[in-house]
Structures are given as C-alpha cells and as structure tokens.
Structure prediction request, 266 residues.
Amino acid sequence: MKRFLFISLFSIFTLVSSAQNILQLSEKKSVHVVCPDKVLYVQGGDDSSIEAEILPELSNIVRVKALHPFEGQTSLTVVCAGRIYSVAAQFGNSNQLIYQLDSLPSEKASPFSGKLMPDESLKGISDQVLSRKGYHTVHRSTRKNGILMEVSDICIKGDALFLVIQVTNCTNMAFDTEAFNFWIADKRQQKATNAQEYQLTPDYARFELKRVPAWESASEVFVIEKLTIPDKRVLRIEMIEKSTGNTGRKLTLELKNRDLRKAEIL
Prediction:
C-alpha cells in the first residue's frame, strides 16, 4: 500500500512538473518570461501560431502570445546568461502569466567564433601556442620610433590559423593600440592606382591587446581561417597607435604565402 502511494505521489509530482514546464498561451492574454540576464536570442517554433518578442524597455523579459487557437505543441527558444532554454508551448487557459526562465530546463550555450570552433577551444589552443618553447621563429618584423612588431609564430589546427604577434616597446612611454587590421593586398608597387585589397576580420583574439607598458613586450594571438595567397599578393598586418588627431604611429608588416605554408601543425 505504501509502495503504491509512493508511486502515485511520484507520478503526480512528475505530471505537475511537466505541466509547469509548458507555457500556456492564449489570444487574449500575454505571457511574460522573466530572464536572469539580457536576452540575446528568442525564437518561436511556429511563427504563424505564436508571437515572441523582447520588450524594448526591459531586455530581460520576453513577451509571448498566441496569434490564434492551435492544436498540439510548439516551442519557445531563448538564449540568456550563457544558457539556451527551449520549452514547450500550447494553446490553453491558465492563470499563470509570468514564468521565471531560470526555473525551466536549459543547457549551456557554447559561443562560436565564425565557423572555426568554440571560443573556449580557441583560448586553450592560443595558450598552447604561446607556451611553445624552442619553436618560435621570427617570420616577419618591422620597427618604428622605438616600437617593434613581429610575427613570432604561425601554427595551424584544422581550419584555424594562429598568428602570434609580439609587440616590444623600447620607449619611456606606454604604447596604446587602436586597432590591428588584416588585409589581403597587392605587393607594394610604385604605381598603386590599380592596387586591390580586401580586409579580413579575425575570428578570435586571445587578449584584445590594448597597451604595452614602457620597456616591456606583450603578445597577442589572432585566429583566422586558413588561406593561401597568390604570388602577387600578401597578407598585410597593420598595428595603429591610439592617439589624438590621428597622429599615432602605424606599423605594417607583410606575410607571403610561403610564410603561411610553414605553419606548424598542432
């Protein structure tokens, strides 16, 4: 008898819990889902049956409403606070108009950079590249007014190309970086009227380097998708100093296709 009562109570608890994980929607009432942080993404499973939107005034609240009566269930997916929530929704009457998102089932949302790999993996591999001892070879370098920029290592893993850039400040003042730019460009020519170039955006930067203190060195790892460069073109890397009135230094170095082909396999 006790066993039967325990099974019955467990079954009732399971049914209640399952019901609480289903949003009950109607045409005349809006349901609000309160999220623990700013909502980065929201999507209804069937846009023709339900409407889901982030409140402009409160970016951590999602308003959900049925557009018309519908049978069966659809879904609501929300990405928030590094987690992805996907809950069922059905048409019905309910007095519950507010749901707490963090009380609903979720999974960790792993952020991706482009189409290479998750940021956590890129971070770990970047640290591995920086810790390599006895392998570093200066591929290309440039110097200007006491600032040295060099590509000290190039590695590849899968489709990800890891470029290690080291900046050495041989002056008495800190060097602040405004940006690192990457270009596929024609080789330097006396006549540049027909020069063509297009910009590359790295998929990942390990430290997002902003400052190199006086008489110190700092390294940055940029990750780009693997590529080959025609013989008449180069990968041009620019480092621009942050300053007032565009008076900062700009250091530029170029990598040729043979430099990229020497990338060490990780």
In short: Confidence is low (pLDDT under 50) at residues 1-19, 190-194.
